[in-house]
């Protein structure tokens, strides 16, 4: 598509902001939950169906990945109250947080060590169940440990996926476990250790010198050539999205366990790092099903790669890339290094997402060190982007406008804020040291 930048900037003054400074975008189309859901044909029933499928597969997961045995083959992360981090954010960044602060540790998810252990793994399980049922190899009522015996059957099939790193890790590991021949198409942003780890598990890794969109395109092309091949479409997959959405059902229980009330007088704020949009979109969709108007979800994107903000603010979705407005798409937050957003997610988020914001790379390392120093928890720089929202929600004028509009100012002392940590567990020790010593 041809973009007339001058005209576009005239219509969307936010583009000039995005080019000049860290920007907070409040979604002008955000409306109440009931009305927003009238235009969406995905529902709670789809999320429940997804959760039931994950429960069926738990016997296989538990057997093949012993690290999941304590949770009976259910891949889930802790919700951790981080009061020490809250104190640091208040003191060092004048964040003015008055309620409770939690870290959702998807950085610690079993098997893939990132939020992709939700969407990516589910996508392959769903595909495998469909294949096995079609071929009369399994019934829903069977014990799914049986999948351990289907590796020969799945070895006739291949899986392809394009990735900046973490999606490749999750798809690669679970596909290899089920017996598939799997190829991960890695963009230039992907870290070497991720490629090495995948190769050690028998995954075929193809490297590209270009960005994520190109890696996806090439993967799709190769996959189409082979009729027994399945291409994981990160940009358009409903199943990936639903895999992420299940987190909301689990979070509801964890909030209860932590005695956190979410209702009209006790609002919940959630900040999630965003790349192509699937993970934060799926999580937001799930949370809105459960907490409706009492949860306020915001995405956080790198200053140089705010693809979802650009797509949603201009309503051009995937018809525009950050490069079209003169940003580079290059960021140390490798999990978020995406220049063009998912249209599917942009459309579903249209009236459900409260807003989006950008963050410069330099502070990501600072937040990372702050979390280590205050809570002894390591997460990767892509994940720490969420803390930028935590720091701004009660201190920035644009966010105060949102709080005021939704009559939330007086309720902030009863609020809970969740910083969604999206990756970190598998980062090797030497790379952690390198991160900790990085000052931009
Ligand atoms: C993939 C990823 C995200 C964002 O997910 P998208 O579906 O690309 O929006 C956030 N953080 C990390 C660490 C990731 O790997």
What order do the helices and strands come in, and which of them pair?
Blueprint: H1 5-11, H2 14-20, E1 24-26, H3 33-37, H4 44-64, E2 79-81, H5 83-93, E3 100-105, H6 116-134, H7 151-154, E4 158-163, H8 166-178, E5 181-186, H9 192-200, E6 204-207, H10 212-224, E7 229-232, H11 238-245, H12 247-257, E8 268-273, H13 278-291, E9 295-302, H14 307-314, H15 343-349, E10 355-359, H16 361-375, H17 381-384, H18 386-392, H19 397-405, E11 416-421, H20 429-436
This protein binds pyridoxal-5'-phosphate (PLP).
Residues 114-116, 166-167, 273-280, 335-336, 338, 380, 382-383, 422-423 line the site of pyridoxal-5'-phosphate.
Describe this structure in words.
The protein contains 20 helices and eleven strands. With 440 residues, it is of the alpha/beta class. A seven-stranded mixed β-sheet has the order 1-10-9-8-11-3-2, with helices on both faces. α5 crosses α16 (361-375) and α13 (278-291) runs parallel beside α15 (343-349). It is globular, with a radius of gyration of 21 Å. Bound molecules: pyridoxal-5'-phosphate (PLP). Pyridoxal-5'-phosphate binds at residues 114-116, 166-167, 273-280, 335-336, 338, 380, 382-383, 422-423.
């Amino acid at each position: 598509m041809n973009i007339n930048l001058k005209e576009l900037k005239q219509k969307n003054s936010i583009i000039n902001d995005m080019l000049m400074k860290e920007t907070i975008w409040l979604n002008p189309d955000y409306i109440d939950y009931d009305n927003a859901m009238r235009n969406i044909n995905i529902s709670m029933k789809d999320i429940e169906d997804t959760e039931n499928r994950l429960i069926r597969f738990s016997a296989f997961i538990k057997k093949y990945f012993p690290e999941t045995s304590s949770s009976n083959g259910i891949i889930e992360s802790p919700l951790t109250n981080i009061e020490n981090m809250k104190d640091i954010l208040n003191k060092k960044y004048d964040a003015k947080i008055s309620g409770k602060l939690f870290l959702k540790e998807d950085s610690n998810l079993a098997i893939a060590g990132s939020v992709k252990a939700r969407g990516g793994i589910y996508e392959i399980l769903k595909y495998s169940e469909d294949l096995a049922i079609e071929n009369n190899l399994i019934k829903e009522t069977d014990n799914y440990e049986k999948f351990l015996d289907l590796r020969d059957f799945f070895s006739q099939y291949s899986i392809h996926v394009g990735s900046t790193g973490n999606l490749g890790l999750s798809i690669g590991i679970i596909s290899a476990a089920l017996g598939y021949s799997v190829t991960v198409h890695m963009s230039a942003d992907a870290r070497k250790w991720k490629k090495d780890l995948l190769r050690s598990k028998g995954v075929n890794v193809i490297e590209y010198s270009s960005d994520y969109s190109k890696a996806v395109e090439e993967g799709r092309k190769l996959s189409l050539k082979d009729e027994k091949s399945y291409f994981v479409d990160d940009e358009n997959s409903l199943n990936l999205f639903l895999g992420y959405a299940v987190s909301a059902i689990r979070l509801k229980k964890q909030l209860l366990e932590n005695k956190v009330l979410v209702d009209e007088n006790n609002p919940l704020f959630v900040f999630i790092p965003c790349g192509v949009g699937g993970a934060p979109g799926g999580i937001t969709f799930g949370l809105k099903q459960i907490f409706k108007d009492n949860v306020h979800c915001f995405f956080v994107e790198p200053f140089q790669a705010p693809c979802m903000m650009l797509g949603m603010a201009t309503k051009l979705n995937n018809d525009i890339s950050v490069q079209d407005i003169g940003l580079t798409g290059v960021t140390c937050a490798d999990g978020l290094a995406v220049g063009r957003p998912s249209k599917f997610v942009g459309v579903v988020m249209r009236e459900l997402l409260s807003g989006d914001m950008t963050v410069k790379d330099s502070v990501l390392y600072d937040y990372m060190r702050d979390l280590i120093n205050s809570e002894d928890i390591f997460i990767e720089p892509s994940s720490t982007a969420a803390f930028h929202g935590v720091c701004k929600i009660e201190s920035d004028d644009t966010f105060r406008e949102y709080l005021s509009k939704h009559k939330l100012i007086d309720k902030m002392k009863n609020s809970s804020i969740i910083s969604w940590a999206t990756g970190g567990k598998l980062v090797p020790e030497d790379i952690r040291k390198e991160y900790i010593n990085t000052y931009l």
